[in-house]
Specification:
The complex is a heterodimer of chains A (156) and B (260).
Chain A (H helix, E strand, L loop, with lengths): L3 H37 L2 H4 L6 H5 L2 H36 L3 H42 L9 H6 L1
Helix pairs in contact in A: 1-4, 1-5
Chain B lengths: L1 E13 L6 E13 L3 E5 L6 H8 L7 E6 L2 E2 L5 H11 E4 L11 H6 L9 H15 L14 H13 L5 E5 L7 H17 L3 E5 L3 H4 L4 E6 L2 E7 L5 H15 L12
Parallel strand pairs in B: 3-8, 3-9, 6-7, 7-8
Antiparallel strand pairs in B: 1-2, 1-4, 4-5, 9-10
Helix pairs in contact in B: 5-6
Classes of the chains: A mainly alpha (156), B alpha/beta (260).
Chain lengths: 156, 260
């Protein structure tokens, strides 16, 4: 006999293949969003003797635009996720699940997806930041590859 | 004791901008007694599934009064409705609607996991039901890897695990071959006789319907007629149903060559 938590965890575990798409969406936007703070907190980048301070101080605007875009993107992905799960929530309610239980299971699933996508997004961001540095370096001059720990905190 | 009391039930489906209106039910009166095994039959489009959905509170009626076990649904809050549904009603769907992410055993215990009770006793109950439905041997398999008949029995198990007073089944044999549907209906019969559960079955198959004790025929959203089984002779009842269907015009001659 299992209780409600165990059942919802098992459901999540066995459904994870169907959630890949949503985790991918989340981790992709996390990754893109992570690349900007890595540059912003880079020591070389903030050094005005190496990089023009006009450039380094004007990075906020594009990251704000990016934040808005990724917000819309994540909301869209979340909506399609709810649409996909709606049938099952309806079934739960017919079987005798109360509204609060349905809410619990929704929050549970979304929190797990969020954790998975943030972790994988940070990992991917760390890997791909080299490529990003390369591109940025081509445009504004060489900067050393170093990722400041602050950029991980920035995301949250 | 009257389990289900329906008075002048009407249902009108309207399209989004009120352009077309479809009258699915035009005033149905119905009484179902405790322990009855009732069938609802009728040609397609007659409103039998609509009626069952409204009876089982999945859908709302446009007007009319529905009482289950003396409770009026229009006067209940959402939460108490869920609790009432959990304790008193069971459902078997046509596509069974089992969760592919859970095993057979977990599917059956799913309704119990919402309310935490004495685990020991529940374990016994699950075992008893799985034994009765003959699915103990496949309890650790997933729904997609067992046969349709076994899926249906799992669905029945999930419906009866809470000891519901009324069990609703919408075309429970629609997806099955005749042998599995036979076995499935025998379990319904067993439940009806041994536990005195009230069972309401919607079907278009006269063979499935012949297991019922009383059948109402619906046509154009109204109760057209009803027949009751006398004694236990299923064959005779089957003949009666076929006769009735021919009169209603629901069954054309299957071997007719004049298609045009």
């Amino acid at each position: 006999m299992m209780n409600f938590q165990q059942i919802s965890f098992r459901m999540f575990k066995n459904n994870i293949r169907q959630y890949y798409l949503y985790i991918l969406c989340g981790s992709f936007s996390t990754m893109i969003f992570f690349l900007f703070p890595t540059i912003m907190t880079n020591n070389d980048f903030n050094d005005s003797s190496k990089i023009d301070s006009m450039i380094s101080s004007n990075l906020y605007a594009p990251s704000l635009v990016l934040a808005i875009f990724s917000f819309v993107f994540i909301v869209y992905a979340h909506n399609s996720f709810i649409k996909f799960r709606k049938k099952y929530y309806a079934l739960f309610m017919v079987i005798g699940m109360t509204n609060s239980n349905v809410k619990k299971i929704m929050v549970f699933e979304n929190v797990l997806i969020a954790i998975a996508s943030i972790l994988s997004g940070l990992l991917l961001g760390t890997i791909f930041s080299k490529g990003f540095y390369f591109i940025v370096g081509k445009i504004i001059g060489n900067i050393d590859l170093s990722i400041n720990l602050k950029s991980y905190i920035y995301i949250q | 004791m009257v389990v289900l009391n329906v008075n002048d039930l009407k249902k009108i489906y309207t399209s989004k901008k009120n352009i077309t209106k479809t009258n699915a039910l035009n005033g149905i009166n119905l009484k179902i007694e405790q322990g009855e095994f009732m069938g609802i039959m009728g040609p397609s489009g007659s409103g039998k599934t609509t009626l069952l959905n409204i009876l089982s509170w999945i859908d709302n009626a446009t007007s009319g009064k529905i009482e289950i076990l003396g409770q009026d649904i229009n006067k209940m809050s959402k939460n108490s409705m869920t609790l009432f549904r959990r304790n008193n009603l069971g459902y078997v769907f046509q596509e069974f609607n089992l969760l592919d992410s859970l095993t057979i055993e977990e599917n059956i215990m799913l309704p119990l996991s919402f309310c935490c009770d004495d685990l020991e006793e529940l374990n016994k109950k699950i075992k008893y039901i799985m034994n009765m439905l003959d699915i103990e041997s496949i309890k650790n398999q997933y729904p997609y890897s067992v046969s349709g008949g076994e899926q249906q029995r799992t669905a029945i198990g999930r419906a009866i695990i809470n000891n519901p007073n009324v069990i609703f089944a919408d075309e429970p044999t629609g997806n099955l071959d005749s042998k599995s549907s036979n076995i499935g209906m025998q379990y319904f019969e067993k439940l009806n006789i041994s536990k005195k559960n009230t069972i309401v079955v919607v079907t278009h198959d006269p063979f499935t319907a012949s297991y019922c004790n009383r059948i109402i025929f619906i046509k154009d959203g109204l109760v057209n007629s009803e027949i009751t089984k006398s004694g236990t002779n299923r064959k005779m009842f089957f003949g009666q149903i076929m006769e009735k269907l021919t009169v209603l015009g629901g069954n054309d001659d299957e071997f007719s060559t004049n298609f045009f």
